[in-house]
User: What shape does this take?
Amino acid sequence: MLTSFLLDSGASFFASGWTQFAAAFGLAFLIMLIFGKPFINAMHRIQKKGQPISENVPEAHLKKTGTPTMGGILICISIIIPSILFMPISNPTGWIALLALVLFGAIGFADDYKKVVSQSKKAANGLSPLFRLGVEALCVILLAFLINKTMPPYIPELSLSLPFGIILPLGIFYYVFAYFVIAGSANATNITDGLDGMLAKLYMPVLIVLVVALYGATRIGFMDTVMFLPTASGLYAVLGAAFGAVLGFLWFNSKPASIFMGDVGSLALGGFMGTVAMLLKSEIIMAIAAGMMVLILLSSFIQTMYFKASRKITGTGKRVFLRAPLHHHFEELGWPETKIVERFFIMSILFSGLALILLKFA
Assistant: This one.
């Protein structure tokens, strides 16, 4: 009877979403702090030369040669273990978010592995862009199908939620939209991960917005702009673990970084972020909160397109920025790395603040 009482009490205690969030956050943070240094030492031994520094970054980055990469492996582990321990096992939303983390983490791992083995400084020394985008598309189709199945019956299938309670049926274009949200998030975080500690700092304000959206989605009448999604309650532990893991990783990744997140971490966190936003029907809010990452992604796209177009027209490629992505442009202007990270962090807070305002009042 005592055992039954303790089990029932424990189940009741962890039934609260915020309790799940706090427990998963604490365990994920502890895993990062306890195993961070041993993991870094292991990566030093395994990788020997560390991550090759790309030829397309400012010269100041050469001093980072030898720093190990693939820290995202420990981030993923720190998210998965607490999530499974504290989330409601029968709720599909948590599992779908973790599946996104694993799928995009696997793509990133393959990319990192190829880079480390080749030790080439060329930007395209990982997986080919076309192959990677194709694999991402397959992952997104699977995730979008599963996400759609979690929606309650009062929400039309394959639809987009807009402010003021507007539901826009998309049909087959739902999968195209999902690709832009999930794969777009993954590639935005991947490109943002270019300076010590930057992705972790820009990512956390976005997580806060997603947590507020989650609370609104699981409380009737708390937010008129958020749909009531009872199954979303399975995301409390997962988001708590993500917050704890990213914060713990920053302990080792802040300048000077002892380890890099690598594509295994940046792609995993981006795919996870986009998937959670879709599970919460908060894709537009997430895009606003991640505005700084979106600007960084756009800077790289604009630079590439303008260079190709100007080369085709004039025979000589021209650039909009001194160097892309955006953070490298400011490095070329002479800004110290820490100043860029802190100012981008401030911008991320402002974008997330705007998203919270729109979440409550739009």
